[in-house]
């Protein structure tokens, strides 16, 4: 069999049929590996080869632009096909995009010249934004254009982060990474507002709720973008009381959403309470930022990790579990192991926020619990993602 024939045969495998399959699987596996490596380094167990810029720079960058961006890519590449009715990215184009993501992960550990390292890191986000934007533009789906704006800003903030790394300007790195984290929060706000109430309604067999005013969603999107831009401009360097009202409004609207979505029956279904608790962490993080800017919360870092581990991690794990089942034709029920994974990630976030101020062991425990949660997803869902739709 010739090489082109082998490539076509490999590209025809179920793994490359839809974007969620390779990116969910690789993103979750990468989260597991990265959290284990980070925990071992924190406690001095691993002191081997260091990535460019050191472990802290790698950890900050990769949990966003390695892990989170992989999940975002898998979700959007799959969802855009549903929104537009156009064929989804698959086979060779999907493989090439995935390889761009993979090369960027490997580049941290290779002795590459700085320009090549920069090119490999910055190639993925513009490619993803262009692919998503092209499909939305061809289908005339203007309501989803904010997705492209967020992807473009993520690429910009990644550039800010990496330029800070190469120029040894730690403050540029920090600003870019915090801006990117709150941009991901903006994306979670948009996507969560669409799918969580729908999943709750379907999961509990409730009739569709009547449409609500679009203004809370618009205010949340605009406010989340402003929050992200403020972070990229140094809004987390020191408390700024004039930023507190922005985060207070976001927190109030997030909590209003949670109250509006709540149904007593959701606590019986892990696929629902995992998403609900993940969104609760997002609401608590915005409330924490409001309090920090007013001087009522001692640590901005704790708020950041509440958003990163509890909000981003919790919503991602619940979302990829639900989407993987739905798009592979499986029943929307998780195993006890997967329900345990949701609980472990919630505990990991609690350890990072509540235990760390009192004991450094909270860092390692949080990383271990988070890694185990994503390992349970990989172990339980690899067969689903690698095989054809039922």
Give the uncertain stretches in residue-range form. Answer: none
**Second CATH tier, the architecture:** Up-down Bundle
Number of domains: 1
Specify the helix fraction band: over 70%
What would CATH call the class?
Mainly Alpha
Mean model confidence by pLDDT: 93
Question: What is the rounded Rg?
Answer: 20 Å
In terms of structural class, how would the helical and strand content be classed? mainly alpha
- CA(first)-CA(last) distance: 30 Å
Q: Name the beta content range.
A: under 5%
Topology, number of strands: 0
CATH homologous superfamily identity? Cytochrome c oxidase-like, subunit I domain
Oligomeric state = single chain
Given the C-alpha coordinates, what overall shape results?
globular
Summed up, the helix count is 14
Any idea of the CATH topology? Answer: Cytochrome C Oxidase, Chain A
**SSE pattern:** HHHHHHHHHHHHHH
Summarize the biggest pleated sheet.
none
Fold and architecture overview:
This protein is an all-alpha fold and 390 residues long. The two termini are 30 Å apart. The radius of gyration is 20 Å and the shape is globular. The chain has helices at residues 3-11, 20-42, 55-84, 91-107, 114-122, 124-139, 145-166, 170-203, 215-232, 244-261, 270-293, 300-327, 336-355, 361-386. It has a single domain (3-386), classed as Up-down Bundle (Cytochrome C Oxidase, Chain A). The model has no long low-confidence stretch (mean pLDDT 93). The longest helix is centred in the middle third of the chain and has 34 residues, at 170-203. 46% of the residues are buried. The chain crosses the membrane at residues 23-43, 63-81, 93-110, 116-133, 145-168, 180-199, 219-236, 242-259, 271-294, 306-325, 337-355, 361-386. Pfam families: NnrS. Keywords: Membrane, Transmembrane, Transmembrane helix.
